[in-house]
Amino acid sequence: KAGVTQTPRYLIKTRGQQVTLSCSPISGHRSVSWYQQTPGQGLQFLFEYFSETQRNKGNFPGRFSGRQFSNSRSEMNVSTLELGDSALYLCASSPRSIGGADEQFFGPGTRLTVL
Amino acid sequence: GNSVTQMEGPVTLSEEAFLTINCTYTATGYPSLFWYVQYPGEGLQLLLKATKADDKGSNKGFEATYRKETTSFHLEKGSVQVSDSAVYFCALRENSGGSNYKLTFGKGTLLTVNP
């Protein structure tokens, strides 16, 4: 099975722009979660999508948004970019079976640099 | 809220040395506990997990035991190799009927193993 794929792998933007990152989960996985990784704050949960609906949300401003399509692929969008948004954005997928004990499989991440 | 505290790094060891990375947690209820590993330039890989008290997770010579009485999940390996050099993250996830798929991570511990 192919793993979680994220595109693009690297992105450079300037302040004030917006950006869209894409994540394709493992085939058959219906849950996609997004995390932001920075040297200062570590790994922080952004949001989780399951069956095209946002199920959980972390403590990020409304500039961070996402969506999930019927094929479980997910995108996240960051509007009005700030320097502090420079980070590695990781996507994770899971089958999300009943019981909730599944592991999450992570993609390689998208490295966003905001200049 | 939930939190994970793991020992600050970096940790530098010689090959074949014994490794311990401490991890303690604060959570409501009975979370599942995980250790993830991140190699340079890559996403996170699940190393091992434990879903209930006294469970021992193990993989590739690494072990960790879910200790509810001390709220700990310390990572150990009897003999490290140069290839174990990476960043290790302790994480927890609440098990609230499968409705919560948010992982809470520790800050990460950088391990360097010298030949």
Keywords for this structure?
heterodimer; A: 115 residues; mainly beta; seven-stranded mixed sheet; four-stranded antiparallel sheet; 11 strands; 0% helix; 52% strand; globular; B: 115 residues; six-stranded mixed sheet
Characterize the structure shown:
The complex is a heterodimer of chains A (115) and B (115). By secondary structure, chain A is mainly beta. Chain A has no helices and 11 strands. In chain A, the strands form 2 sheets. In chain A, strands 2, 4, 5, 6, 9, 10 and 11 form a 7-stranded mixed beta sheet that branches. A 4-stranded antiparallel beta sheet of chain A has the order 1-3-8-7, with no helix packed on it. Chain A is globular and about 40 Å long. The N and C termini of chain A lie far apart (37 Å). In chain A, 37% of the residues are buried. The mean pLDDT of chain A is 92. Chain B is mostly beta strands and 115 residues long. In chain B, 0% of the residues lie in helices and 49% in strands. In chain B, a hairpin with a 5-residue loop joins strand 5 (32-38) and strand 6.
Instruction: Tell me, rounded to a whole number, the average pLDDT of chain A.
Output: 92
The stretches of 5 or more residues of chain B where confidence is low (pLDDT under 50) are none
Q: Which descriptor suits the 3D outline of chain A?
A: globular
| Quaternary status | heterodimer
Fraction in beta strands of chain A? over 45%
Backbone CA Rg of chain B: 14 Å
Largest interface: A-B, 29 and 28 residues
Coarse shape of chain B: globular
**How many β strands of chain B by DSSP?**
12
The helix tally of chain A amounts to 0
- Structural class, from secondary structure content of chain B? mainly beta
The residue fraction in helices of chain A comes out at under 10%
Number of helices of chain B: 0
The rounded distance between the terminal residues' Cα atoms of chain B is: 41 Å
Give the termini distance of chain A in whole angstroms. Answer: 37 Å
Order of helices and strands of chain B: EEEEEEEEEEEE
